[in-house]
Amino acid sequence: MSGERARYRTSLEDSARWEGLEFRSDDIVISAPSKSGTTWAQMLCALLVFQTPDLPAPLTTFSPWLDMRIRPVEEVFAQLDQQRHRRFIKTHTPLDGLPSHPGVTYLAVGRDPRDAAVSLHHQHQNLDRETIRRLLGEPAPGPAPPPAQRPSEREAFLAWMANEDSPFENLDSLRGLAWQQSVAWSRRRDPAVVLLHYSDLSRDLEGQMRWLARQLGIEVPERAWPALVDAATFEHMRQRADDLVPDERRPIFIANDRFFRSGTSGQWRALLTPDDVAEYQHRIGALTSPDLAHWLHHGMLG
Predict the structure, then answer these.
(1) pLDDT > 90: what percent of the chain?
(2) Among 122, 14, 134, 127, which Cα is nearest to 69's?
(3) Cα 9 → chain centroid
């Protein structure tokens, strides 16, 4: 991951905030598009690092979202500097926008883009936009459209699919997601990069956790595995939503329990027409290579 870094700046994030972070040689950086399994990957790292379901603090406290602009970056750096355990840091920045440091593991997470889009639509509806606006110091917007005029799930999906914004300014689109995953996929043979997929976790959670532990060089006593795997299930994570939802110490969701809405795959099938599916296949084929598209839709185990 050498050469000049790209800069990504969106309404909530700025990859320039990584400047000045003092890395440690065993740091883990978790990079994934929104709603692609970032929090799940954070939880897996927490369970493997601490080796107990009883985490010492809410997830945000020891795994901050570094490039989120709501918190002063100096505050995040100080928080990370105080940590004495192995650190794991969240980001939605693609790998080409992150600093390179010897020994750091870059954990990239994938998910079927169609499932990510459906989940992203519901997350946008759950955001407390007034609180976010105030924390960012932005001016008050004009009147919001009445609920009847807001896009349906299908309309939101089609807009997400057709969006042509630059990924450097908007990663929450099919184009942005494909760009981010293309960067990760191109580095899949880099020893510093580990690829994890939502579908593989859903099919074989314990197997994937054991595999991830090996990739991270973490030894886990055999007796500890059942409790760790149980704590990593979607059902148990949803029960602990208040401790796991990303809030960066400032509540940004209307309801925390809605963050873990479903966890299932394939809900897009009930939304899209055959023509929509055909258009999606054409679009993803234009944005990704065939092998990357297969991994995005199926994972390594599919």
Answers:
(1) 69
(2) 14
(3) 16
Q: Would residue 10 count as lying in a domain?
A: no
The model carries a pTM of 0.86
The C-alpha atoms of residue 77 and residue 69 are separated, in whole angstroms, by 13
**Is 197 an active-site residue?**
no
Which one from 92, 121, 197, 297 is the annotated catalytic residue? 92
Token code pair at residue 201: 């976790």
For residues 102-114, give the mean pLDDT: 97
Q: Which domain holds residue 260?
A: 15-298
Answer whether residue 273 is part of any domain. yes
CATH code, 220: 3.40.50.300
Number of separate domains in the chain: 1
* CA nearest to 167, candidates 154, 183, 179, 184: 179
Q: What is the pLDDT of residues 266-276, one digit of tens each?
A: 889 999 999 99
Does residue 211 fall inside a structural domain?
yes
Q: Is residue 48 part of a domain?
A: yes
d(CA 207, CA 276): 35
